[in-house]
């Protein structure tokens, strides 16, 4: 009989494999009996994703992003290029910072999808605290769009499909992950050819256990980035996973128009305009009527009117086929 015993200790899942299997070998004369020894469990206070900081090589590193709590560097881990989010030493003892850091690690450990940035490990036993993910050479969508000054409908649809696939995975019930800060800076290009996108940066994400498909959540505070923020978040009202659908619509708009929504306004003023019911104007000829219609549904004021990402995927695939004819 083969059985697995799961035991929680120090926040790590330790698998203890208990083997009680008797193997009998019959040589035609005398039966022989062999009982293997139980496989010893891993070290009890180490997670399999805990990284020894000595394995990280920062000798040729460079900063690829900065935030209020730390910086993101390109480094090398066991000979592989990686992205390392490193908490500022001055904040390594801050209780709330540590809490947010551990929340992001615990969230990333659970994620496995081709359109979601892959978590590789973390440094939690030493300071500074560090979170390690795959390094994507293409940079972020914000910089890419800045250089391209707008995409044609075919490229925008392909990009939108990748984002929607990643978000459909995150929104899968019953364990829904609301990103809450979906924006071009948090969408990464796998390589310089820009043929594949991944959703990243889950620092503000929230894991919700959904009891039914119409659940809404009271999350106070203006969480996220103003320019891509859903009106219900700005107004401090109850909201659900459809806040990400709204942000997606703003990204789709920016991909085709070549400029952020309400680019002539400061981010806070842009969010205020959105909360008052205003939406940016469609100008680009690349904005196909079908894409305009989809964008309009995704940024609807009533979150219940916005489609799910699975519905968005179906619409995008249909529009994509029409453009190829």
From TrEMBL:
Q: Where is the Protein kinase domain?
A: 58-319
* Gene Ontology molecular function terms on file: ATP binding; protein serine/threonine kinase activity
EC assignment: the record states: 2.7.11.1
* Swiss-Prot/TrEMBL catalytic activity: L-seryl-[protein] + ATP = O-phospho-L-seryl-[protein] + ADP + H(+); L-threonyl-[protein] + ATP = O-phospho-L-threonyl-[protein] + ADP + H(+)
Q: Which UniProt keywords apply?
A: ANK repeat, ATP-binding, Kinase, Nucleotide-binding, Repeat, Serine/threonine-protein kinase, Transferase
Q: Quote the record's binding site residues for ATP.
A: 85
Q: Which SMART domains match?
A: S_TKc (SM00220)
Query: Which Pfam families is this protein grouped with?
Result: PK_Tyr_Ser-Thr (PF07714)
Enzyme class, spelled out: transferase
What SUPFAM superfamilies does this protein map onto? Protein kinase-like (PK-like)
User: What are its GO cellular component terms?
Assistant: cytoplasm
Family from the record: Belongs to the protein kinase superfamily.
State what protein this is by name.
Answer: non-specific serine/threonine protein kinase
Q: List the lineage, top down.
A: Eukaryota, Viridiplantae, Streptophyta, Embryophyta, Tracheophyta
């Amino acid at each position: 009989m083969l059985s697995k015993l799961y035991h929680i200790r120090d926040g790590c899942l330790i698998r203890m494999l208990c083997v009680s299997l008797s193997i009998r070998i019959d040589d035609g004369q005398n039966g022989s009996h062999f009982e293997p020894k139980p496989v010893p469990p891993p070290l009890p206070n180490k997670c399999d994703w805990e990284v020894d900081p000595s394995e990280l090589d920062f000798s040729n590193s460079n900063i690829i992003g900065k935030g209020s709590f730390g910086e993101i560097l390109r480094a090398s881990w066991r000979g592989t290029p990686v992205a390392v989010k490193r908490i500022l030493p001055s904040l390594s003892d801050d209780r709330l910072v540590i809490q947010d850091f551990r929340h992001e690690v615990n969230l990333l450990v659970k994620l496995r999808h081709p359109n979601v940035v892959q978590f590789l490990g973390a440094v939690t036993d030493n300071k500074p605290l560090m979170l390690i993910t795959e390094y994507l050479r293409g940079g972020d969508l914000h910089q890419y769009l800045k250089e391209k000054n707008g995409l044609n409908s075919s490229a925008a649809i392909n990009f939108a499909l990748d984002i929607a696939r990643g978000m459909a995975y995150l929104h899968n019930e019953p364990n829904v992950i609301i990103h809450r800060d979906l924006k071009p800076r948090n969408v990464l290009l796998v390589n310089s050819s820009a043929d594949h996108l991944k959703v990243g940066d889950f620092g503000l994400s929230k894991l919700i256990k959904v009891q039914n498909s119409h659940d809404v959540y009271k999350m106070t505070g203006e969480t996220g980035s103003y320019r891509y923020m859903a009106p219900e978040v700005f107004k401090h009202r109850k909201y659900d996973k459809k806040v990400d659908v709204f942000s997606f619509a703003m990204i789709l708009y920016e991909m085709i128009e070549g400029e952020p929504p309400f680019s002539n306004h400061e981010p806070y003023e842009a969010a205020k305009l959105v909360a008052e019911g205003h939406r940016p104007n469609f100008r680009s000829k690349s904005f196909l009527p079908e894409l305009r219609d989809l964008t309009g549904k995704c940024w609807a004021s009533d979150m219940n009117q916005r489609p799910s990402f699975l519905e968005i995927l179906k619409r995008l695939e249909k529009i994509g086929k029409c453009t190829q004819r």
